[in-house]
Amino acid sequence: MIYADNAATTRISDSVFEKMLPFLCDQYGNASSQYSLGAKAKRAIERARKQVAAAIGAELLEITFTSGGSEANSWVLRCVADTYRNEPMHIVTTAIEHHSVLNACHSLEQTGIEVTYLPVDKTGCISVDNVKAAIKPHTKLVSIMLANNEIGTIQPIADIGLLLKGENVLFHTDAVQSVGHIPVDVSDLRVDFLTASAHKFNGAKGTGILYKRSGLDLSPLVFGGEQERGLRAGTENVAGIVAAGYAIEESVGEIADTSKRLKAMVEDTVNGIKEKIPSVRVNGDSECRLPGTVNLCFYGVSGESLMHLLDLKGVCLSTSSACTSGKGEPSHVLLALGLTEQQAKSAIRISYGKYNCADEVGKVVTAVCDAYKKIVENR
Ligand SMILES: *Cc1c(COP(=O)(O)O)cnc(C)c1O
Q1: How many distinct structural domains can be found in the chain?
Q2: Quick one: which atom of ligand 1 is closest to the CA of 73?
Q3: pLDDT digit string, tens, across residues 186-200
Q4: Is residue 350 predicted with pLDDT exceeding 80?
Q5: If you measure from the C-alpha of residue 198 to the centroid of ligand 1, how many angstroms do you get, rounded to a whole number?
Q6: Of 194, 229, 253, which one is at a domain's C-terminal end?
Q7: Catalytic residue among 288, 316, 323, 369
Q8: Mean pLDDT over residues 72-85, rounded?
Q9: Which residues have any ligand 1 atom within 6 Å of their CB?
Q10: d(C-alpha 131, C-alpha 119), whole Å
Q11: Do residues 57 and 143 share a domain?
Q12: Which of 13, 44, 260, 310 has minimal CB crowding within 10 Å?
């Protein structure tokens, strides 16, 4: 099997798994317990917090662990909105956000909050000027993803952060696809909130990270005990948090090597497919893109059919994002690029990760081209 869907999730790193395992077995203490088994769990969580903070240039107490990226995104949107519930409120976001941001915005609109969904150009980039023009006197929050999960386009977050510096506006970025894949530093980006998720950088599923700049208040989304300094209740997922710490340390340490390798693999994949299928088109920005992710359109052919045929050949990739595929609806991201519904439905996403190797490229190219040929010949 070839797994080329690392934007959906990644395999846990071998060394991270080893570090995590004891906390699923003999080190099973509750971090809130007063005896030494509990204290050990607590110490493990605090070590992970240190590793995460160091990896993104944050301070220890600016890091809170959640159940995932979706929870962290929902937390920021819902609780910032809650803070301003007695005032007119406007949020600026983009048309290509992950559904955990978009659907949170839709639910806020139901409560009377105004939301602007910024358009993107045909490479999937938003313009800093558009952000500037969208700011209104009652704008309280701007939420823009760092890199898109379907097409990989990287947004000019640092420039937007600079622009918003003088404004009285909170700035959040969903960096779930970026952390561990491209350099991410919260001071460089000038963000107030940043979301990451461990299973996207070879950690375990079910652990997210919210960075919250020190000095900012955010009410809890999950109520209960005093875990995470009262910010996020619920018995900590100690093993998942331990994995997140080691995984972020490992993946950030390997960024230079891995990104160079994955970029070359993506390039070879695209060139290999183009050789046999000249009409194939790359969606997204050709330069400003995540190293391992590429989205391709095969006009006249259904991406879903391609995906299923490739599955039979042992190649795992997806049509758009893991969350929308299966519903048969065209990707909101590809539609925002200006693609027609039919074009959008002809897309597949290949996303390589650190466990892919160069000799898989040829196999992916052959499998994709064979599947394409089979569909074209059979109609
Ligand atoms: C995967 C993903 C999320 C959701 O993270 P989970 O930990 O799976 O909840 C949010 N945003 C982006 C961009 C993602 O790719």
Answers
A1: 2
A2: 10
A3: 999 999 999 999 999
A4: yes
A5: 9
A6: 253
A7: 323
A8: 96
A9: 68-70, 73, 98, 100, 145, 149, 174, 176-177, 197, 199-200, 208
A10: 10
A11: yes
A12: 260
Residues 158 and 276 in one domain: no
- In the reported structure, the alpha carbon of residue 57 is separated from the centroid of ligand 1 by a whole-number distance in angstroms of 21
Please report the atom of ligand 1 found closest to the CA of residue 323. Answer: 1
Tell me the residue range of the domain where 39 lies. Answer: 14-253
Active site residue 79: no
Average pLDDT over residues 93-108: 98
Q: Of 198, 219, 253, which residue is a domain's last? A: 253
CATH number, position 192: 3.40.640.10
Looking at the structure, tell me whether residues 42 and 182 fall in a common domain: yes
Question: What pTM was computed for the model?
Answer: 0.97
β-partners of residue 197 are: 208
| CATH assignment at residue 359 | 3.90.1150.10
Q: Whose CA is nearest to atom 5 of ligand 1?
A: 69
- On whether both 43 and 160 belong to a single domain, the answer is yes
344 and 282 within one domain: yes
Atom of ligand 1 nearest to the CA of 70: 9
Q: What is the pLDDT, as a whole number, of residue 323?
A: 53
Domain identity same for 222 and 316: no
Question: What is the 3-class SS of the chain, one letter each residue?
Answer: CEECECCCCCCCCHHHHHHHHHHCCCCCCCCCCCCHHHHHHHHHHHHHHHHHHHHHCCCHHHEEEECCHHHHHHHHHHHHHHHCCCCCCEEEEECCCCHHHHHHHHHHHCCCCEEEEECCCCCCCCCHHHHHHHCCCCEEEEECCCECCCCCEECCHHHHHHHHCCCCCEEEEECCCCCCCCCCCHHHHCCCEEEEEHHHCCCCCCCEEEEECCCCCCCCCCCCCCHHHHCCCCCCCHHHHHHHHHHHHHHHHCHHHHHHHHHHHHHHHHHHHHHHCCCCEEECCCCCECCCEEEEECCCCCHHHHHHHHHHCCEECECCCCCCCCCCCCCHHHHHCCCCHHHHCCEEEEECCCCCCCHHHHHHHHHHHHHHHHHHHCC
CA of 319 to the centre of ligand 1 (A): 16
* 367 alpha-carbon distance from chain centroid: 27
Which candidate, 350, 354, 352, 343, places its Cα nearest to that of 368?
350
On whether both 245 and 272 belong to a single domain, the answer is no
